[in-house]
Design goal:
Blueprint: E1 3-8, E2 28-34, E3 41-45, E4 53-58, E5 69-74, E6 80-82, E7 84-86, E8 96-103, E9 109-115, E10 126-133, E11 136-143, E12 151-156, E13 162-166, H1 174-178, E14 185-189, E15 195-197, E16 206-212, E17 215-220, E18 225-231, E19 237-244, E20 248-254, E21 257-262, H2 266-274, E22 282-288, E23 294-300, E24 308-314, E25 317-322, E26 327-332
Parallel strand pairs: 7-11
Antiparallel strand pairs: 1-2, 2-26, 3-4, 4-5, 5-6, 8-9, 9-10, 10-11, 12-13, 13-14, 14-15, 16-17, 17-18, 18-19, 20-21, 21-22, 22-23, 24-25, 25-26
């Protein structure tokens, strides 16, 4: 583990030729914690008995064919370690993206992990399920289905059902991303062990999912919106509403807020995935569930911590992951 202490001061910086700029926020004292390449997604584990900790998805997205890992970051000691995966079927290639952890009705702790093909635009994708035993992930099952064309956000429940966001129908289609085509969907994996289309409406880049009571929140990155739906007993989603006009990546609900990250320039994200020398901004904020007021928490032009993709608050600290590089950023958040 490597810690680098810094006080980050953010200023408004030009994002593109059209003159848009980053918001300005007050400085925060932050530490970088080295983990593994592509700390794109993580979950807060306070239920397994081995926490409090972050369980972190890691995959080198600049070298897509390489396989990835899952790490844990103990939030009391700040110790980072690689979790051991056991019992996987022979030949399984592990390129993780989204994660969710849940305590089932029978008391098991399960980790759901979306994985991808050995090519960025490949066709094979699946959801893996592991039981969590301290720092071991014990393989339980692999869920495969033709609808898993590009799984992104996953939200699991104690009855072992889950929602999955499919960000697009065909990962090889560049037009889908360039023109923000509505090719994404949300599916519900029910007690019958089958996927069911949860909402009939197509979405442009259905991304991350979280739930607050009867409402499900989805970041539709291609539409620059966060949607809210009513969850029905059968898993169907109704009463679709625009919660916020934000180009959000991952969303996480805590203490009456949605914590999220935005990528002001898709072009800069694409260039950043080619080389770490190409900077991409980080913009992390939270939005009140009741008043919908957006408060910016951390803003960086990418020169210190680029392309933030996830954020979790624990006690007086906020932890952020990033799309391509190898760090978690821990910042003081005692004012939040």
């Amino acid at each position: 583990m490597k810690l680098i202490s810094v006080c980050v001061i953010t200023v408004a910086i030009s994002l593109s030729s059209c003159g848009s700029s980053l918001p300005t926020v007050k400085p925060r004292t932050c530490d970088k914690i080295e983990v593994g390449p592509g700390t794109e997604d993580m979950v807060l584990d306070t239920i397994s008995g081995s926490g409090p900790r972050l369980i972190i998805s890691s995959h080198d997205r600049r070298n897509w064919a390489t396989t990835g890992d899952v790490y844990e970051l103990n939030l009391e000691t700040q110790k980072v370690s690689k979790m051991t995966r056991v019992g996987e079927p022979a030949g399984l290639e592990f390129r993780p993206q989204d994660l969710d952890i849940v305590k089932t009705e029978s008391g098991k702790i399960l980790l759901y992990v979306g994985i991808h093909d050995n090519q960025l635009e490949g066709a094979y994708h699946a959801v893996l399920v592991y039981s969590v035993d301290r720092s071991n992930l014990v393989f339980q099952q692999i869920i495969e289905d033709p609808i898993l064309t590009s799984p992104n956000g996953i939200r699991a429940f104690p009855d072992e059902t889950f929602y999955v966001a499919i960000d697009r129908e065909d990962r090889s289609s560049k037009a889908t991303l360039l023109f923000n085509l509505k090719k994404g969907s949300i599916y519900f994996y029910g007690k019958d062990k089958k996927f069911h289309l949860a909402s009939p409406e197509k979405i442009s880049y259905a991304n991350s999912i979280d739930v607050d009571g009867e409402r499900l929140f989805l970041s539709a990155s291609g539409e620059s919106k966060i949607y809210s739906f009513k969850r029905e007993a059968d898993g169907n989603l109704t009463d679709k509403q625009v919660f916020a006009a934000v180009k959000a990546d991952n969303v996480w609900i805590n203490d009456g807020y949605i914590y999220t990250q935005t990528h002001p320039s898709t072009f800069k994200i694409f260039r950043h995935l080619k080389s770490k020398d190409n900077l991409a901004p980080s913009v992390v904020s939270r939005i009140g569930l009741k008043d919908k007021t957006q408060q910016y928490i951390y803003v960086d032009d990418g020169s210190f911590f680029g392309a933030a993709s996830s954020a979790f608050k624990y006690k007086s600290k906020i932890y952020m992951g990033q799309i391509a590089d190898s760090d978690i950023l821990k910042c003081d958040a005692s004012d939040l």
